[in-house]
Amino acid sequence: MKINTRFITLATALLLSASAQAQHLPKAQHELLATPTTVAWGYYAADAPPVLRIKSGETVQVHTLITSSPSRLEGAGLPPAQVEQSLRDITDKVTNKGPGGHILTGPIFVEGAEPGDVLEVRIKAIELAIPYAYNAFGPKSGFIPEDFGYAKMRIIPLDAKRMVANFAPNIEVPLRPFFGSMGVAPPPASGRVNSAPPGIHGGNLDNKDLVVGTTLYLPVHVPGALFFVGDGHAGQGNGEVDITALETSLIGNLEFIVRKDLHQAMPSAETPTQYISMGLNEDLTLASKQAVREMIDFLMRTKGLSKDDAYMLCSVTGDLNVTQVVDGTRGAHMLLPKSIFTKAKAK
User: Fold this and answer.
1) Is there a single domain that holds both residue 279 and residue 253?
2) Cα–Cα distance measured from residue 89 to residue 288, given in angstroms and rounded to the nearest whole number
3) Domain residue limits at 286
């Protein structure tokens, strides 16, 4: 009998890595597991029943699942023992699915949030939940499907201790975990919105800069905001060109604050060192223009700059990046360093 050494090597690597996978996140006021009754499969919707109610200022430790099926993962070489039981349960029991494919935990109802407000989401901590990720592409997806008329999926071991992915022999990819999809319910008139394209509700932003320490700002469209999260990525390149990142399961501590003093039509964010504006459109050029315009508006509103000066500042110090080009609605974002804004010297 021929022994498949690749599968044995992979199984050994995953089992060794799993032994190092431990819970180190600080406690939160609430914990939300991913179960058949606490997930929305493939959609954002204003009529989705809340699975958790919290107060503004409270923190939730939320568990998210890898967006795949046990059969696909096993078909790619993952040992069956490494498939999370929660993923098996959700795959077997959740029938209310679509039109998208992401398994999202939520929604979370934040008391006091009303349409016109902004939900501030502080990403306090993120931890790998499993010792592997996958990357895959298909014949009709990705940025250049005309070059890849077939499907392929690779299981990639994750080293949580060293925070690298063992992509291949002599290739290690640094890990920067983030949630690819974070959003609130869209306006009720939108109905059930596909989880794949991002929009004014946030959603599948796939922005690799939304790591620990980042704050995401989402315009609220329904009472309670109704926040969903999922699509865990252990890491990703700007563009996400083959349509997937290092797809994995994550656990994160998120703090939610209702902002009555902010009013905005588009998602935005900030890191400890940078401001982030976002643009979304099926046309990448138009998405890029929107990201620039959003940053100009931000600078005029918060820094007191004229429109002309804000435009100039974006050109001399702003970095305009492609967020992703594969989610139907394409994304661009501009990064502007906070360090350029010096404090006035005391006289």
Assistant:
1) no
2) 41
3) 273-340
